Structure formats: structure tokens, C-alpha cells
Amino acid sequence: MASVFKPEEARFPTALQPPVPPVSKFKIALCQLSVTADKSRNIAHARRAIEEGASKGAQLVLLPEIWNSPYSNESFPVYAEDIESGDGAAPSYSMLSEAARSLKITIVGGSIPERSGDHLYNTCCIFGTDGSLKGKHRKLHLFDIDIPGKITFKESKTLTAGQQPTIVDTDVGRIGVGICYDIRFQELAVLYAARGAHLICYPGAFNMTTGPLHWELLQRARAADNQLFVATCSPARDASAGYIAWGHSTLVGPFGEVIATTEHEEAIIVEEIDYSLIELRRSNLPLQIQRRGDLYKFVDVQRVSHH
Ligand SMILES: NC(=O)CC(=O)C(=O)O
């Protein structure tokens, strides 16, 4: 199950050697999917992509952010699923669980709008090879940005932020999860590294303004700073959509190197992850023991609110 973090731990992460992973090499599939307004089609389409990834040897499949619904504040309430109800009213969630179980793979299920009581979340569910839910990550940092003339989006109009970082032990190693805007907050990645993550998965849908400048830069920075693997998965680009995704799903290694990437069309990347590279890079550049934690402890600062 997902580890629970106390706030004080989050402020002062203590370094941990990553545990020996259950596998040292395995294949990951990044399914960059087209997303339409037809939810049933999106679910069937994602199911086929997962199967294709597994048929090419992937033991871990990663899906995009908001793959069952258009990415808009109008759509989130309409496409949302109550994944805690267990009454079969969560077809996206059920499909992921069934696919993980029948294909015997781990799935980091991108994200879907989740309804819980009166709240909506942008939620990633992680399933083990038996189909069980290993963890659930609700986007921690909501995407509220305003770049006049370029892009304005306010997820907080409809969504509520999650309250827990999410790190899970799976058959393919210890995985930290963030969703899209979460990648901009380096502290989260530092925390996952400190908790022994081998890989951080970020389902994400960057856009045509920030994507070209920041998408790859942030992934490589999170990977190189923390000397671990980073995998991202975006929806494919739809130039007619209200929100146009940048695409470019990518796998980055612990030296900050891009191992595999794609353009903006639909694509399934299947690529090897070799965890021995983590140890190699950490011995090449022993950042963890060179870190001057005595000089830069996190301090509490009052949040500044923007109006
Ligand atoms: N869509 C997001 O959550 C993030 C994004 O597009 C950005 O940070 O830029």
C-alpha cells in the first residue's frame, strides 16, 4: 500500500538507500493515447494499448493524464468516477484493474477525474499484477496558471488538491507518482528519492506554451538531480481540442539522459529500464553523501496568496 507521510517528514526528508528492486531490468510501455469525448471508446482504446504494450514485453504500463475525458473543467464532473464506491460505476478504474490482473502487469493508470463525496480530484490509480489497487495519487499541485494571450487554466475551479505524496512498492520497483504540474515541484521528487524510489512516473499533459520549453527540461532535471528514472506519459495532441496537449512522452535515465521519446501523435513506446544504472550514476557522482543538508534545511514559509 501507499506509504503515509507525516508533514514533518515531508519537510525534512532523510536519505534512504533504495531497496534492492525485485527486478533489475524490465520493459516499460508509455501509451500516448488519443482522447475523445466518447468515454467508452477511450476506455476500450486504452485497454487495447495496454495489451499491445504487454504483448511487446512491458511489465509496467503508464497511461496519460486524463485519458478517459477531455481535459476541461466542464468535462471533469461529467466523466468523473467514484472509485471508492465499488458498485461497478467506475468503468475506467475497473478496466485498469482487470487489465493488470489478466495481463499480470503493473499499471500506473495515468489519471482520471475522481469523484469523492462533494469533491473532484485528478487521480492516478496504481495496480499490482493481481489487479489490486496499490496506491492512489491525487494531484497535489493544481494547474492554475495565467500566461495572458497564451494559456489560462484554473483546475481549482472544479478540482480539489490531494494531500498525500504517493510511493508504492511494486513488482517492478519502488515508484513515486506525480501528476503533470506536480513535476514542477522539485521537493516532491527529492522526497521520493529520499524514500528510496527507483522511478518516478508523471502522467502529464503539458501544453503548447509550456511544453516546448519546460516538459523535457523538468523531466531531465528531476532525474539528474535525484539520480533515478523518470517516465512521463501525455495524451496525443488534438489540434481541435480546447486544451492542446504537447505530447512527447519520454523516459529519462538517472544521468538525465533521454532514453526514449516520441513526437505528438499517438504512440506506444516500449523501452528497457535498467536499475543498475542508478547505482552506477550514484557512484560516479555521489551527490547523496556530498549534499550539504546542514546548510539548506527546508523552512516553513507562509504561503503567499495571489488574487
Ligand atoms: N497541465 C498541467 O498540469 C501542467 C502544465 O501544463 C504546465 O505545468 O505547464
UniProtKB/TrEMBL annotation:
The keyword rRNA processing does not apply. Pfam families: CN_hydrolase. InterPro entries: C-N_Hydrolase (IPR003010), C-N_Hydrolase_sf (IPR036526), Nit1/2_C-N_Hydrolase (IPR045254). The keyword Repeat does not apply. Keywords: Hydrolase. GO terms for cellular component: mitochondrion. One of its GO terms (biological process) is oxaloacetate metabolic process. It comes from the Eukaryota. Residues 26-275 form the CN hydrolase domain. GO terms for molecular function: omega-amidase activity. This is CN hydrolase domain-containing protein. It comes from Dendrobium nobile (Orchid).
